[in-house]
């Protein structure tokens, strides 16, 4: 099926470069954050998460940075590859709640 | 493969009709979430069930209902369908004590 979100902001990156995708979250009470990757026609796939008691967390080729002062989250992808082309969503959840709030998403296009 | 199974993958139906979407969570997961993803709304939380009981409710219309059965699979019922209900409907699941939710591949509903 066609991917949704045709009007998403788009980030175009040259293959091999680093990508930085940003997300502003809304609730200062949110204490848990996740980044998801959604490829065309597929469900969101978990990439990395971070709790509010951390500023930075690293995974394989990905790093998430959290700035609680300005309610900002970023996902850094090192050495971006064609397979990284997808829509990326951040999600937040407040302590004591079960509701995840998703951002609008950013489309990452990797240029060969 | 996240382990969350959704059926059907695609569904086309007429306005005014009723459909049922089915979800089987990952083995061992007691929580099931339903999300709607449309072009102009992003991922919208509809409802969550935990071990058969409704736990959280989001922007779910009165025409929509859901339930979780003793075997933990869940169904989302959409009735009196309107053109604007055309969207991808995702099910996600999580294990108790974990903040991470894992998504299925979605059910693509087209109302004509």
Structure write-up:
The complex is a heterodimer of chains A (112) and B (112). Chain A is mostly beta strands and 112 residues long. Chain A has no helices and ten strands. In chain A, the strands form two sheets. In chain A, strands 1, 3, 4, 8, 9 and 10 form a six-stranded mixed beta sheet that branches. In chain A, strand 8 (86-94) and strand 9 form a beta hairpin. Residues 1-5 of chain A have low confidence and may be disordered. With 112 residues, chain B is mainly beta. Helix content of chain B is 0%, strand content 54%. Chain B contains no helices and eleven strands. In chain B, the strands form two sheets. In chain B, strands 2, 4, 5, 6, 9, 10 and 11 form a seven-stranded mixed beta sheet that branches. A four-stranded antiparallel beta sheet of chain B has the order 1-3-8-7, with no helix packed on it. The termini of chain B are far apart. Chain A binds chain B through residues 1, 4-7, 32, 34, 36, 42-46, 49, 89, 91, 93, 97-105, and chain B through 2, 4, 9-10, 31, 33, 35, 37-40, 42-45, 48, 50, 55-56, 58, 87-88, 90, 99-106, 108.
């Amino acid at each position: 099926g066609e991917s949704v979100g045709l009007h998403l902001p788009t980030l175009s990156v040259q293959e091999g470069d680093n990508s930085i995708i940003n997300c502003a979250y809304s609730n200062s009470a949110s204490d848990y954050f996740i980044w998801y990757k959604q490829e065309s026609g597929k469900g969101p796939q978990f990439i990395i998460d971070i709790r509010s008691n951390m500023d930075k967390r690293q995974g394989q080729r990905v790093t998430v940075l959290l700035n609680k002062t300005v309610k900002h989250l970023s996902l850094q992808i090192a050495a971006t590859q064609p397979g990284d082309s997808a829509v990326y969503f951040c999600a937040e959840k407040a302590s004591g709640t079960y509701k995840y709030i998703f951002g609008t998403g950013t489309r990452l296009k990797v240029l060969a | 493969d996240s382990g969350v199974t959704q059926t059907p993958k695609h569904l086309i139906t007429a306005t005014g009709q009723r459909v049922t979407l089915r979800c089987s969570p990952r083995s061992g997961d007691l929580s099931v979430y339903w999300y709607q993803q449309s072009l102009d709304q992003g991922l919208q939380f509809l409802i969550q069930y935990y071990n058969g009981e409704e736990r959280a409710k989001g922007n779910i219309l009165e025409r929509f209902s859901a339930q979780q059965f003793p075997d933990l699979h869940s169904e989302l019922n959409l009735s009196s369908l309107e053109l604007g209900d055309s969207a991808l409907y995702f099910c996600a699941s999580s294990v108790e004590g974990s903040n991470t939710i894992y998504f299925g591949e979605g059910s693509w509903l087209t109302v004509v």
